[in-house]
UniProtKB/TrEMBL annotation:
<dbReference type="Pfam" id="PF00005">
    <property type="entry name" value="ABC_tran"/>
</dbReference>
<dbReference type="InterPro" id="IPR003439">
    <property type="entry name" value="ABC_transporter-like_ATP-bd"/>
</dbReference>
<keyword id="KW-1003">Cell membrane</keyword>
<dbReference type="GO" id="GO:0005524">
    <property type="term" value="F:ATP binding"/>
</dbReference>
<dbReference type="InterPro" id="IPR050093">
    <property type="entry name" value="ABC_SmlMolc_Importer"/>
</dbReference>
<keyword id="KW-0547">Nucleotide-binding</keyword>
<dbReference type="Pfam" id="PF08402">
    <property type="entry name" value="TOBE_2"/>
</dbReference>
<dbReference type="InterPro" id="IPR027417">
    <property type="entry name" value="P-loop_NTPase"/>
</dbReference>
<keyword id="KW-0813">Transport</keyword>
<dbReference type="InterPro" id="IPR005893">
    <property type="entry name" value="PotA-like"/>
</dbReference>
<dbReference type="InterPro" id="IPR008995">
    <property type="entry name" value="Mo/tungstate-bd_C_term_dom"/>
</dbReference>
<keyword id="KW-0997">Cell inner membrane</keyword>
<dbReference type="InterPro" id="IPR013611">
    <property type="entry name" value="Transp-assoc_OB_typ2"/>
</dbReference>
<keyword id="KW-1278">Translocase</keyword>
<dbReference type="GO" id="GO:0016887">
    <property type="term" value="F:ATP hydrolysis activity"/>
</dbReference>
<keyword id="KW-0067">ATP-binding</keyword>
<feature type="domain" description="ABC transporter">
    <location>
        <begin position="13"/>
        <end position="243"/>
    </location>
</feature>
Amino acid sequence: FEPWKDPQAKPYIRIVNVTKTFGDFVAVDNISLDIYQREFFSLLGPSGCGKTTLLRMLAGFERPTSGRIELDGVDMSAVPPYERPVNMMFQSYALFPHMTVEDNIAFGLRQDGVPKAERNKRVEEMLGLVQLSKFGKRKPHQLSGGQRQRVALARSLIKKPKMLLLDEPLGALDKKLREQTQFELMNIQEQVGITFVIVTHDQEEAMTVSSRIAVMNHGRIAQVATPTELYEFPNSRYVAEFIGDVNMFEGRLTEAQPDHVLIHSAEADAYIYVDRSTSAAPGATVWVAVRPEKIDVGLTPPDDPTYNCVTGKVWDIGYLGNLTIYHVRLANGKKVTAAVANRTRLRDRPITWDDQVYFTWMPDSAVVLVS
Ligand code: ATP
């Protein structure tokens, strides 16, 4: 499922040069973005980057200051929210406290005058979809947070929108329940087969659920890509640092070949090889980004001279059960982090505080960034 790679595929949502200003503040700055049918698309970014504003423009609650939004080929500029084939689920869920679960879910259909028999049938379907068949007669206060979230989801889906917009849908849930609910949400999205666009500031959540993610920064899109691409091939320091943990080494490009580059990094006190090309010219300042889990930790230098290597003293160790995190301080003070999987029960000789260790990684395990 990769419609964005198919030049024939027609985008379901087209956001074209959309800007939104509040007074002289630019909340969304000339964004263009295509989203395809059945995508689970995430808008991800720090607080205030404009993601909710963009979502609200898709829903029709805000109008773009300039630019346009097309849905299924139709310009939405003059279409009010209630006439769009779109529904929005809010973080607060906004369930009616005095109504039963069934009545909450049926609310939209009742407003539309759908006959009772049809309504009941659809409510039952929805209760099944969100696995709450036995809970129809309860009131919201008799449900857990996760169950309330599912009622809100059922209510958002009962009118069969072509697209569901979700603003921090799991924000109110605790970590464990959040993780479980992420998978339920993916399952439900697959079953109903519609496009989900979700706003979140939680990068793990976006990575888990999304077909693609737009990482936003100050009203702009920094990068749009699949979770894997964002993590393995971030296009900038901003994205590399926003998605997961990363070691960043500033350096000077000394050699640039089509299949590899060599960087001298005073920060790493080393030459670093990377098996990739770069748009930068020799002499330019660049950054090498290495994820902690791509680094091996040893008490002796690597045998293989093609491995990149920095050396320093262990100043902190974090044992997480599945992983051990080693923080090393290089001679020049630079801190570097490695995350090593705890595959064996006991190490031959556990690395400990103040050990001199060697952090090594292969030339194809890093990326070179020019901004
Ligand atoms: P959060 O995760 O905190 O919700 P966000 O990325 O969703 O952040 P938005 O809610 O889109 O951010 O807001 C983007 C910027 O626009 C913020 O600086 C916000 O203060 C501003 N903003 C949003 N709505 C309005 C408004 N109606 N009037 C004035 N400024 C607004």
